[in-house]
Amino acid sequence: MKLNRRQMLILLPAAAVAWKHVLAGTPEESPNYKMTDHWWSLLIDIPKCIGCGNCVRACQAENDVPDGNFRTWVERYHVSDWNMTSPEVISPDGGKEGFPVATDEAGKYFFVPKMCNQCADSPCTQVCPVGATFVSPDGVVLVDQKYCLGCAYCVQACPYGCRYIHPEKKVADKCTLCYHRITKGLTTACCEACPTGARQLADLKNPKDPIHAFLKTHAVQVLKPQMATGAKVFYNGLDGSVR
Amino acid sequence: MGFLKEAGHLFRFAGLFVLAFLAFLVIRAYVVPKSFGQYGHYRGAALGEIAAHPIKFAGHDSCETCHTDVLDKKKTGKHAHVNCEACHGPLAKHADDPASVQPVKPDTAVICARCHTASAAKPKGFPQVDPAEHSSGVPCETCHQPHNPAIDAGGAK
């Protein structure tokens, strides 16, 4: 085959047209919701948590979470005075039905609700071989379940153990920070159901959000800061023994 | 121009490359989802699909549109900041169609105990009782009105 200048000149625009077709997208957004105006996070106030399990049940009801898997769960820590580094941690069925009554008054107890930390530099999205999980422009780590292969790299990569393979769909599943709710102006199901206000959804890009004043005046931590994941679930009053 | 004649095989090869590249572009256009790369290395349409998941909890603002009588009772008491659906459960269906979807009345023996059963693990300031010792099986709502639980706030119902 011989390609002369004329043929080349015909082929180049054809290639350009094809390229344009490749780049074309079909955006699908909620009305009145601008992703670039938000940067979602969540505040967990440890001293307020009573371990009732409302959040775990609400999450399961809202998101059809299969039994035995958890998008959020609650752990109860019991730290004795003489052994800070190996606390007794329990989480029966993720704390879904609450916790057994504690009678041992020695040491200290506290509850730690856990969930996806919505990391800004999340290890789970970096390992996905097909681009099925990502940090959305409004700061939520999501899974495209139509695109996910179910290879579970992300399940292994998450340092917080917040992902699982859905037993029926066979794809990665995780907390979406109730993306279907927060894009409609509602709070997450766990925050809605929390009776003590121990969980609060926060928008870091909203200057009027009370989170800014809270972060200024409280000793707040994220889990595993040494992993530099850019975690955005803030814990107030987190004990040093929590891993 | 003998040079060009001798280099003919190079041009043929280059032509093959161009053809292969075009074939790649066409196949790619069909295989890669339309919205891939819209916001990053993922399918932009996935955001809309995830956001389209139906809601189950209606949210406190929905309750407020009708149940102002209950909210008036609630806002002066200790349960002022407890959202309705924390005890009554997810009721978006009821909010959508209040007439045909009626919520089940929560069982106070279960609901109250979840939060208020005494345990050394709970924060000390949180009101908690040993249910057996506190009421010996008498239902909570006999003395406490759940929407405003202080005894002097009006007793039953």
Short structural summary:
The complex is a heterodimer of chains A (243) and B (157). Chain A has 7 helices and 11 strands.
Tally of contiguous helical segments of chain A: 7
The CATH topology assignment of chain A is Alpha-Beta Plaits
Q: What do the pLDDT scores of chain A average to?
A: 91
- Overall body shape of chain A: elongated
Element-by-element helix/strand order of chain A: HEHEEEHEEHEEHHEHEE
Level-2 CATH architecture of chain A: 2-Layer Sandwich
SS-derived structural category of chain A: alpha+beta
Secondary structure: helix percent of chain A = 10-25%
Q: How many independent structural domains of chain A?
A: 1
- The number of helical segments of chain B is 9
Describe this structure in words.
The complex is a heterodimer of chains A (243) and B (157). Chain A is α+β, with helices and mostly antiparallel strands. Chain A has one domain (37-236): Alpha-Beta Plaits, CATH 3.30.70.20. Helix content of chain A is 23%, strand content 21%. Chain A contains seven helices and eleven strands. Chain A is elongated and about 90 Å long. Mean pLDDT of chain A is 91; it is low at 25-29. Chain B has 157 residues and is mainly alpha-helical. Chain B has a domain at 60-153. In chain B, 47% of the residues lie in helices and 0% in strands. Chain B starts with a helix and ends in a 22-residue tail after the last helix.
Q: Topology, pairings included?
A:
The complex is a heterodimer of chains A (243) and B (157).
Chain A: H1 5-23, E1 40-45, H2 54-63, E2 72-80, E3 83-90, E4 108-115, H3 123-127, E5 133-135, E6 141-143, H4 153-157, E7 164-165, E8 172-173, H5 179-182, H6 189-193, E9 199-203, H7 211-217, E10 220-221, E11 233-236
Chain B: H1 2-6, H2 8-31, H3 45-51, H4 60-66, H5 68-74, H6 84-88, H7 92-96, H8 108-116, H9 131-135
Keywords:
heterodimer, A: 243 residues, alpha+beta, Alpha-Beta Plaits, four-stranded mixed sheet, three-stranded antiparallel sheet, 11 strands, 23% helix, B: 157 residues, mainly alpha, 9 helices, 0% strand
